[in-house]
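Kindly go through the following sequence and its backbone structure tokens. Advise at your convenience whether the structure tokens fit the sequence:

___
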Amino acid sequence: MKIQYDHQIFTQQQFGGISRYFYELIKRFEGTENSCDVALLLSNNAYYNQDVNPKLRPFFPNSNSRITSKIFRTVNQQISSYVEKKGDFDVFHPTYYDDSFIEKIKKKPFVVTFYDMIHEKFSNQYENLKSDTQIFDSKKRLLKHSSKVIAISETTKNDIIEIFNIEPSKIEVVYLGNSLQNFNIGDYRLVADNYVLFVGNRGIYKNFDFFVTTIAQMLIDADLKLICAGGGDFSPQELFLIQSLKLEKRVFFKKIINDDVLANYYAHALFFCFPSLYEGFGIPVLESFACGCPALLSNGGSLPEVGGDAALYFDPTNAESLAKSVAELINNEFLRQNLKEKGLERLKQFSWDTTFLETVEVYQSVK
């Protein structure tokens, strides 16, 4: 059985949970009776790149030029289009929600992964999401024509059923895994001071402004830093907020260069906080568990489903709830140690090997 993936997420993301997910699937085909191919030539992705596949080529990875971005996208789109029309595969699996392949693959079965229902649930609250109407139409079309749908959590499955009225039997839940394994940390700390950790994107529903505003005085009183790992440089609006809260010497952005660096940020943090209003899964939860980092999580979306009893939870719309939970973790060393131990135990329920095997079962059911 041959599985065909398209270019979408590897063109869009340099870092990110979705490209990590497909990379973890792709690398597990080696040595099995099944095979896969990715319709891709140019890749600046941190996971699936020339180091993994010598046929891939980087393309001005540090350029933000519209011209280079357009060339990059166009080349990969043309390769994907050619492969889709050729049809030399048993099952097609798009890596994001562009549905233009449907007519090209004709009657070949395809499986689509749904990561969350963020656009649908929050478009009334956020203008950026409201303006992107195409993704709703694409999702609807993908649900109609797909052979099977993979949802990355029961939360996401239930949201799909509620919003699109899809037959539950068409949707299979396949949990994601954790990639921070065998990392090299040692005693060396990338951040010498005590700090709270925030990982990834900070925009829209990620709730960063609410989070930093609520804990500002607590950071000062407890002499803590806030490290924001990944997600890009602070925007002018974020810098203004940080300055207005008098946190210029306490809140810092740090790049994620590789997994060892990310693991170091987790391992030495006082605790990790995920204040998002909603998540379809939440890979950083598993990353924090793997690195022995206590996790403070919003109760939004799938986070309680993934974190189980191994995290402390708060209401992401209630400042008092967040402040109380942060104070608990700052002041209670026993609680932090207890969460570390529970996190390592909880992590045993998730692995990329299981994700791969369950995904292959979905492919086999439609071929």
User: Anything to note?
Assistant: The chain has a mean pLDDT of 94. The longest strand covers residues 195-199. The chain has 15 helices and twelve strands. The radius of gyration is 21 Å.
